[in-house]
Amino acid sequence: MLKYELLPEQLIREGTIAEESIFAPIPLPDKYILETHCAAYYQRLVQGQLTRQEERATGFPWSEQLVQREVTILGGTVQCAKLARHTGVALNVAGGTHHAFADRGEGFCLLNDQAVAANYLLQHEGIGKVLIVDLDVHQGNGTAALFRYEPRVFTFSMHGARNYPARKEHSDLDLALPDGTDDATYLKLLHETLPRLLDEVQPEFVFYLAGVDVLGTDKLGHLGLTREGCRQRDRFVLELCHRYQLPVVVCMGGGYSERISDIVEAHANTFRLARELWF
What we know:
Blueprint: H1 3-14, H2 30-33, H3 39-46, H4 52-58, H5 64-87, E1 89-92, H6 113-124, E2 130-134, H7 141-146, E3 153-160, E4 173-177, H8 183-201, E5 205-209, H9 227-243, E6 248-251, H10 260-278
Parallel strand pairs: 1-6, 2-3, 2-5, 3-4, 5-6
Helix pairs in contact: 1-10, 5-6, 8-9, 9-10
Keywords: Hydrolase
Domain Histone deacetylase: 5-268
GO molecular function: histone deacetylase activity; hydrolase activity
């Protein structure tokens, strides 16, 4: 998508980040991917042996370049996770592929980057408890299913009730919102929920999916947030992580407004807030 090119350009041009602050992600080795995804599925994906039905479910025509893109996104989120342990925060311009299950892809997601990175932290970095805060407009159904029986990962999804997927999975906490939900309603619910979760779950690490498809301008979202409301959402999440001294990885997730400037500006706000708080 065009936003992946425009967002870094905008951030560098305005001085929010320097070019040396950007790292090129390294494709993640298979052994770490297989800690989350089924070997049979991953092998068929890599070899281009998905059935037509499986390919249709992903929304993408298969190609080697597509698989390489997904594996590189995984590498970027894992690198962000390692970096955030030292800097407090790291952001992936892409990522947030939360519809991918262990054994299949759905909804433009082939492999689940935040799930893979969470498992990496649990198994290789000594992290004992992870909180995934998924504020994309679509429920993180793949993430919910992947961690259904994993007590060390708490999944929280706040999403449109009538949006994709039609069949929701069960996160540890799901908050389903009616169409047209405005800034005040959304932010009140988030303010009532997230601090309590941090106190109850007591995570050592947070993954935040900051989708901007919650905007009222979004073609697919059906919620009613303004750009300022979206910025306040991000500020609240990031300020809490900063206050609790919780390292956080932010992935950009969805955004499908008619005007690309609405998408880029909303994502840029997330980076601006991270810089303000940590740097």
